[in-house]
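Subject: Re: docking follow-up (pyridoxal-5'-phosphate)

Dear J.,

Thanks for your patience while I sorted out the input files. As discussed at Tuesday's group meeting, I've set up the holo structure prediction with pyridoxal-5'-phosphate included as the bound ligand rather than trying to dock it afterwards. The sequence and the ligand SMILES I used are pasted below, so you can double-check that they match what you have on your end before we go further.
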Amino acid sequence: MYRLVCVHCGATYSPDQIIYTCNRCGHLLTVEYDLDGIDVSRDEWNRRPLSVWRYRELLPVRGEPVSLQEGGTPLYHLKNIGKELGLSELYAKHEGMNPTGSFKDRGMTVGVSMACELGMTTVACASTGNTSASLAAYAAKGGIPCVVLLPAGKVALGKIAQALMHGARVISIRGNFDRALEMVHELCISHGLYLLNSVNPYRLEGQKTIGFETIDQLGGEVPDRMVLPVGNAGNISAVYKGLRELETLGFIDRLPMMTGIQAAGSQPVVKAIEQNLEVLVPESAPETVATAIRIGAPVNAEKALVAIRATGGTAAAVTDEEILAMQRDLARKEGIGVEPASAASVAGIRKLAELGLIDKDERIVCVVTGHLLKDPETVVRQCEPPTEIDADLPSLLSALR
Ligand SMILES: Cc1ncc(COP(=O)(O)O)c(C=O)c1O
Ligand SMILES: N[C@@H](CCOP(=O)(O)O)C(=O)O
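The structure tokens for the complex came back this morning:
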């Protein structure tokens, strides 16, 4: 049993209403369960495979989900980078290992399943790339048409390739992601498409399972800190919401310090935390190499600020150079391939550790959100091209010398 509740004024709505913002105050909605009525134990969960659907009692879908086997992603111990930073308990949860290569799949399995249960006939989103790749794939699996709006020239090649190949109707706008989101929201309201950006409360339910899995992979222990790259701020809000539910159920007895990392050229949440603002000031011209988090007006900011403040967490910004350096370090020192936005979380921890702003004994989990192959152009720009030689052994030996 659950209902939709406004995160700001508490107004409630029936779960089958197609609604994204509160009719009374215009703020976002969230899914509220009757947690007293939830009948499941941690032992029962632990008997099921590690996946989004291990936690189905805390998800809104009732029928058979539209699934591509999402979740169950690896949690890696970053021994080498951790050693350099003096952090013996530094981990990365690799969300790039999901079916379309990002954490969005956790959200889309739930969001597209709900679209089908609610009888919606077309799904839509705006995207910096990953949301569109994921929605296109899940819409294909669910047999439902899909429309995506992208900021022209600002989406990594791998992500566009995915949206196109999965059969979405792809439109590029001459404007940034924030404008694309406004446009698609308007389109969905006026023409009855189902909006599957992070304003959709059901989609975020799937993403909260990142936190559930992390704790299960740590043998039931809560990490001291969870670090996430922040763009539209849905993921950090979702993970916090899920962990609060586990706390209310008595499955955990504390929360990690939720820590958000943004790019220096796109850091409205960091500024709101640093300046102790109640309401975030949007940035009109966000810019960063980490195009996935090139977002100036994060729609979930209100929830993200609560998550960070209520847990004693923090927010920090990293430069593009710091992001790319960490992308290379993860690849070369740990064997972990991630896209630039994902490297931001670990780059943020490097910065906080070097500034002495975190306790070196903390157990820290960085969520690395998308796969290296999402943005091959940024990878190739950083690496030496292959050496081309004549096809004979002497040439090979001389090239290797
Ligand atoms: C790879 C990647 N990392 C991080 C983010 C930021 O997540 P959120 O928008 O939920 O803050 C996104 C996009 O949203 C993304 O695609
Ligand atoms: N990085 C995101 C931006 C959109 O965020 P959403 O969570 O609101 O869908 C993307 O991949 O498009």
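A couple of observations from a first look. The chain has a mean pLDDT of 98. DSSP finds 15 helices and 13 strands in the chain.

Let me know if you'd like me to rerun anything.

Best regards,
T.
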